[in-house]
User: Which sequence fits this backbone?
C-alpha cells in the first residue's frame, strides 16, 4: 500500500474504527464486535483474522470520553485463587486482552484460596475504584459484594459460581467433562477407578465428583469409599491418596485427576510404578503430550472462559441491564495414551 | 515490645492482621478465618479464645472503617511482563507471601512486554496509592518513575535492571549461567552450538548471549552468525530459527535456549527429528524431568528472586535509607539427559 493510499484510508487524526477492522478482516461488523467484546460464536480462524486486523490497524476501543469523564484510567480487577496454577495464565491473558481493547488496565490479585483474603482483596480493589471485577472465588458467601454491585461495580464470577448473590457467571462444564472422562476409562475396560480431587467445599470439585459418580452409576459399577479422595492439591497429599488406592488388596486400575495440579503429581507417582495404570486428568497442561505415556485430559478452554467473562463484564459496564447470565463453556476430551491403557487381566 | 517501640519500628502496616490474632489465640490462621467468616468446624472454646484475641487487638474484619480512617489498605504492586510465562508463578507467589507477612495486599498487573503499557500500569498503580512496587520491566527508560520514588513509593526491579534511574535490583546470574550451560555442551564434544534467545533489547537476552559468546571464545571456537537467533518467543519464530540451524549444510549439533518459552518449543521441534540434538535451556520448567530425553536446564530460583525483591521493598518501606542495592541470585545447572547427548561423528 502506498503512503497516499494509506493516507486516504486513514486521514490524519482519525483512528481506525471497528468498520475498518471488519473491512480488513473481510468479516461483518457484528463479528468484530463479538471478538472485541469476547463474546462467543466466532470460529478460532475468524477470530485470528480479526485479531490480525486489529493489530495491523492499531485499533483501540475508544473509551477516552468515558475515562476523561471519570478523571482516571479505566481499570478492572481480576481476583485469582492461586498465582502458581498455570490454568490461570491463559485465562488472565484473555481477560487482559479484552480489557486492553476497551482501553482499560487489568489489575490482578490472589486470594491464595483464603475466603477472608478474597474479601479483603475485592474490597481493596473496590476502594481503589476499579470499574469492574472478574472473580475466581475462594469463598462461598459473596453477600459482602452486594453493596459494591449496587453502587455500580460490575462483577463476573469465573470457574466457580458466586455464593448467596446473583451475578454473571462463566463456568466450565465440570460435570459433563468428568462424566465423559470416567465413561472413557470404563469403555477401556476399567471397573475400579479412583478419583483424586480438590477440596470438597470447592464447587468444581463437587461437580467433578458428581460426574465421576454419575458415570460409574450409569455403567452399573459400585464406588468404594476408598476410591474417592478429596483434599488439597499438595503433592504429598496426592501421593499418599494415590498410594492407598494403588496398594490396596483390590487396587484401582485407573485414576481420574480432578485438576492439573493433581494430574502432574500423579504422572510422577505412576512413573515410579511398574504396573501400568490408566490416567485421565481434568485440565490440559503444557507438555501433557510429550511425557510418556502422553496424558489424556479433559481440556478446559481457559482463554475462552476469560474472554467470555470479560465480554460479559464490559457489556455491564456499557450499560446492559438484564438478569445475570450463566455461561457454560464445553470441555473436550483429548485422548493421548494414558487414558487408553487397559487394565491388567484379573 | 512496647506500643511505643512498635509504633516507631512499624510505621507501616500497623493494623493487626489475622496472623496476629492467630498468634495471640494460639490457633492456626485457618481457624481465625473460620471464626471471622462464621464458618463451621470450630469448637466453642476455641471460638471464644479467637474472639478475645480479636477484641484485645482491635482486629477488624471489615476494612471499611480503616479505609475511611486511613484512606486505604496497605498494598504493593507487582508489574509482570507476561501473565502466561510460568517463570512468574513462583516469583509472584513469593512476593505475595512476604507481602502477607507484612499485612499488605499484592496487586499485580502485566505490561504484556509493551514499555508504554508498563508505564501506564505503573503510574495507574501509583495513582491508586500503592505503598511500593516490584517491577519486572518491559522498557529500558524508567525516568518516569523518579517523581514517584521521590514521593516515597518504594520500588524494586526484578529479573531485569531499571533503565536510567538508580533502584534496588534483583537479577539472576544470566551471564554466568549461560556461560556454564554452553561450556557444558562444549565439554560434551559440541563445536557447532546454536543460541536461540529473546529479543535483543531485553537485558537478560543480551547477558545470555554474552555468556554464550564468552564460553565459545574461551574454548577457542568460532561463532557463525547463522548460529545466533534473537527475537520473540513465539513458537513459529523459534521453529523457523531452529530449522534453519539444523538444516544448514554444516548443522549445529546442540542448541542453547535463552528461556523456558524457547526451550519448550525446541523440545517439540527436536522430537520430530530423527538425529539426536543436544539441548540446554535457561530456566527450569514443570515436567522438564519427565519428557524424553529429560531436559538439562540452567535453573533460576524464581521464588528466591521474589522473596529477595519483596524483602528489599519492605526494608525501604520500613525506612531503610541507603544506596540502591543490586542482588544477583546464582543459577544452577541441572543435568538431566538432553544436554549430555554427544554430537554424531563428523
Assistant:
Amino acid at each position: 500500500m502506498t503512503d497516499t493510499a494509506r493516507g486516504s484510508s486513514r486521514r490524519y487524526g482519525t483512528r481506525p474504527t471497528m468498520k475498518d477492522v471488519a473491512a480488513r478482516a473481510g468479516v461483518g461488523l457484528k463479528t468484530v464486535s463479538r471478538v472485541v467484546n469476547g463474546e462467543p460464536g466466532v470460529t478460532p480462524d475468524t477470530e485470528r483474522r480479526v485479531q490480525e486486523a486489529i493489530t495491523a490497524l492499531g485499533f483501540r476501543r475508544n473509551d477516552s470520553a468515558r475515562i476523561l469523564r471519570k478523571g482516571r484510567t479505566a481499570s478492572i480487577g481480576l481476583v485469582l485463587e492461586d498465582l502458581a496454577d498455570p490454568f490461570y495464565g491463559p485465562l488472565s491473558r484473555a481477560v487482559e486482552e479484552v480489557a486492553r481493547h476497551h482501553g482499560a488496565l487489568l489489575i490482578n490479585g490472589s486470594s491464595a484460596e483464603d475466603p477472608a483474603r478474597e474479601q479483603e482483596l475485592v474490597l481493596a480493589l473496590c476502594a481503589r475504584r476499579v470499574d469492574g471485577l472478574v472473580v475466581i472465588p475462594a469463598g462461598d458467601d459473596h453477600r459482602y459484594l452486594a453493596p459494591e454491585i449496587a453502587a455500580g461495580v460490575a462483577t463476573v464470577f469465573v470457574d466457580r459460581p458466586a455464593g448467596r448473590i446473583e451475578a454473571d457467571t462463566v463456568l466450565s462444564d465440570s460435570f459433563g467433562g468428568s462424566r465423559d472422562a470416567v465413561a472413557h476409562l470404563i469403555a477401556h475396560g476399567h471397573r475400579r477407578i479412583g478419583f483424586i480431587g480438590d477440596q470438597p467445599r470447592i464447587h468444581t470439585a463437587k461437580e467433578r465428583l458428581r460426574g465421576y459418580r454419575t458415570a460409574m452409576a450409569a455403567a452399573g459399577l459400585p464406588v468404594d469409599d476408598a476410591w474417592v479422595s478429596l483434599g488439597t492439591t499438595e503433592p504429598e497429599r496426592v501421593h499418599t491418596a494415590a498410594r492407598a488406592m494403588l496398594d490396596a488388596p483390590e487396587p484401582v486400575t485407573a485414576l481420574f485427576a480432578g485438576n492439573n495440579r493433581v494430574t502432574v503429581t500423579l504422572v510422577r507417582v505412576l512413573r515410579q510404578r511398574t504396573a501400568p495404570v490408566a490416567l485421565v486428568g481434568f485440565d490440559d497442561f503444557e507438555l501433557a503430550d510429550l511425557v510418556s505415556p502422553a496424558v489424556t485430559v479433559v481440556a478446559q478452554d481457559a482463554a475462552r472462559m476469560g474472554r467470555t467473562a470479560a465480554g460479559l463484564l464490559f457489556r455491564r459496564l456499557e450499560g446492559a441491564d438484564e438478569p445475570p447470565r450463566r455461561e457454560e463453556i464445553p470441555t473436550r476430551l483429548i485422548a493421548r495414551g494414558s487414558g487408553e491403557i487397559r487394565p491388567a487381566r484379573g
Observations:
- Confidence is low (pLDDT under 50) at residues 1-14, 62-71 of chain A.
- Chain A touches chain B at residues 72-73, 75, 83-86, 89-90, 92-93, 96, 100, 105-110, 112, 114-117, 120-121, 123-125, 127-129, 139, 141, 264, 267-268, 271, 285-287, 290-292 (CB under 8 Å).
- Residues 196 and 282 of chain A are 10 Å apart (CA to CA).
